[in-house]
């Protein structure tokens, strides 16, 4: 049972963290973000309590679903303007998601969360730069 819960939390967290990195990336970069850390990484880095994890799971589930929809819309976008519109919506939803997550964290965890997001963005940008070379 614990293994199944860990698997589920890990799967959900990768989608939530995927959002964190997507905000600063072009549409062509989206597939690169599948390699993001799991909720277990977030759990360890932020030292989440079991109660916090329990509260985060539905947020990550909702975000995963929204990101899948956004990915589909982005793939179907036929113009650069449509792509920008989708990414703008993703960015706004990402800000809302981050605010929801932060409300569940302590001040020190919030600081660590922001640093974590920043690091994820930087790593994703580096992967894109490497791919362009």
Please name the defining characteristics of this protein.
about 130 residues, mainly alpha, 5 helices, globular
Order of secondary-structure elements = HHHHH
What does the main sheet amount to? Answer: none
Helix content range of the residues, please?
over 70%
Q: N-to-C terminal Cα separation, in Å?
A: 45 Å
**General form:** globular
Radius of gyration: 15 Å
Low-confidence stretches: 11-29, 31-36
Class from helix and strand fractions: mainly alpha
Number of strands: 0
Tell me what portion of residues adopts beta-strand conformation: under 5%
Mean pLDDT: 76
Number of helices: 5
Oligomer: single chain
Structure description:
With 133 residues, this protein is mostly helical. It has a domain at 56-126. Helix content is 80%, strand content 0%. The chain has helices at residues 2-22, 39-46, 50-76, 80-103, 107-132. Helix 1 (2-22) crosses helix 3, helix 1 packs across helix 4 (80-103) and helix 1 crosses helix 5 (107-132). The protein is globular. The model is unreliable at 11-29 and 31-36 (pLDDT under 50).
